[in-house]
Amino acid sequence: MLGAMSKKTTLTPRRRPRGAPFLGRALIAVAVTVAASAVVPPGQAQELGVSMELARQPLYHRPGDRLDIAISVRNRTERPLRGGRLVLSVEDRVSSRSALHESFEGPTSVLPSAFPVDFDRRIPPLGRGTIRIRERVSDFVLLDQATEGGVYPLTITLLNTDSEVLDSLGTPLIYYPSSPQPPLKIVVVAPLNTLPARDFDGIFRSDELESATAGSGWLAGLVEAMDRRAGSNGLHLGVAPTPRLVEELDDMTNGFRRAGDVGPEAAGPASRAARDAAALLEGLERLLQRRGVQRILVPYSAPDLPFLADQTFDDQALDKQIQTGLKVLEAGLGLGFDSEWLLPPEGRLDHRSMEELSLCGTASRTFMSRDSLVELGDPAHAGCPQSFTSFTCPVRIKTAGAEPILGFATDAGLGDRLEDLTVAGNERVDLQRFFAETAMIREESPGIQGRVVQTTLPSAWTPSPRLAESLFRGLSTAPWLATVSPEEGISAAPSRARRLVGVAARLQPQPTEPDFAALGSAATAIARYDSIQPPAGRVEDLRRDLLVAQSRMWWTDAGLLERGLAYAQGASQDVDEEFAKIAVQLAEEVTLSSRRAPIPISLTNGTGYPVTVAVVLSSDKLRGGREVVRRTFGPEPNLPLKIFATPEASGSFPLEVHLATPDGYIFFTDRDTTIRSTEFNRIALGITIGALLFLILFYTLRLLRRRGENEKGPAGVTQT
Hints:
about 725 residues, alpha/beta, Immunoglobulin-like, 7-stranded beta/alpha barrel, five-stranded parallel beta sheet, five-stranded mixed beta sheet, 20 helices
């Protein structure tokens, strides 16, 4: 039937005369629609070995535009595809977002407007070919008569020369007969984030960051696409670089160590990787100073804020993440960031984490996922500013502070469309669906001023430079959209009061109790190490490793979670190794020959920097042995000390010597020393000699007295 309708044409199909009677064109459309109604079931394209992908599609069309659509046909069979036919069909304009979502699942049984496109392009076995559709939009009878703009679902069906349906695909066709007014305001926030590449030992273990920053890398392309469209070209948005990423890029610019085939190798400041990192930082700094680009703060390692508020190992963990992030961004970019605007990773907040942020004096402006907000009692009233429309206004959250928190609830539908871009598939269709969703939000209430919708790009998105360029070009040129920065969006519309959930839902996977123990042990170890007053930079490095371990970027699977916890375990191990470099040297036997005598001790310090420790002597027969003596000593081979103690018994007894942090944590013990006290032996000898002398004197005097009495005789008469 299809073969009888029109002759086979060249690659670009011939266009029917514009003056064809409407009835005749309608009959042709009906006939083609019937032939195209056999939509390919899921998986059948793979079975038949021929499939299609959308290679190119203009963001939107106006009257008189050419379709200018390119279809990539892949032939997985071992025989060539010798020409065929594409059937293009459009449905009626969708009237709601739910209807739009239904159109993503496939076309309806009634396709009111369609026409064929024949091609004679030969697709070789196991090869690809591109078919370009240059017909005009007005060749669709439905669109030729349309007076309303919006989204018209388009279905493209591929048939071979035997009229067998090989594959089909659907994509939204956005059509505006006239310029839509007023446009929908949209706040877009672009996080810049990736898994840490620098390990806890300072070596860059992964080459993913090097690939991302190269000229064709996704990160370089993303920053360049925003920079090209921002400012005078009409793109306003918020940009939220993760501080840990900026820190690693800054490290790379100065030369760094990376894992090699036979061990760590050096990449100097003149290396390609270092120069790419420097160029990216320069581009990011330039972007963040563009008019209309707002700097948004992300905590240092992009942790899950409800998780941090719930943990017990460090009650200042959230504040440390924020303060470290501010310090790193200023050092790495040379730009100040205000903690007023904060992007919680994935928009996850709850009442507890919000209260903690308020106590820290940060985040008076923020972004929230819909799951972070308490659902309204009546779902019919979930819209804003009108109950039947999408939620398109800022929100206002009351906290313990004097001023409420203002921000945006991220639109769930737009978030879903953007998440689709992170999954392998036909990315051009997914991008078109995102823009169709924005058009549908606008068309829900086309005449209402002051509507502002917000969305955040997925933090796990690694787009190709071409896709990133398509996204930001579309945002800056779509006539139904007006991009605004977050602050501009807050000022554009009144806010609506909402409440945060008390406790956010637990994520899976998420750190378990043993994982909590590892994080807690690292936090305790770092605090103990800090108490001996080592160089501040060493403590800061350990603290940042612990902050990296708290990142939610590790939570996507169990393997990554283990890799993240290794940063905390590495910090604990580093502390143990530093403590092991501080020790005591003492003779195996020490003799005390006086009541209060010095005990000679030698402290050794192999750390290479001064530390403060406590020396504790412990023995049951030594008074003063529990006295704590603090000494600051440098990296000398040893430091002799004399600690006075008083023995309480004679003889030999064991002595324990402990090294401890000033707060009392014992990290070294020596039990190999024996105390020999001779002081009590001399005392006993003196007493014995004194007693003997007393007895000698006593008996001598007694003898002399008796002899005197005998010489006088009886009655006092002296005898001669």
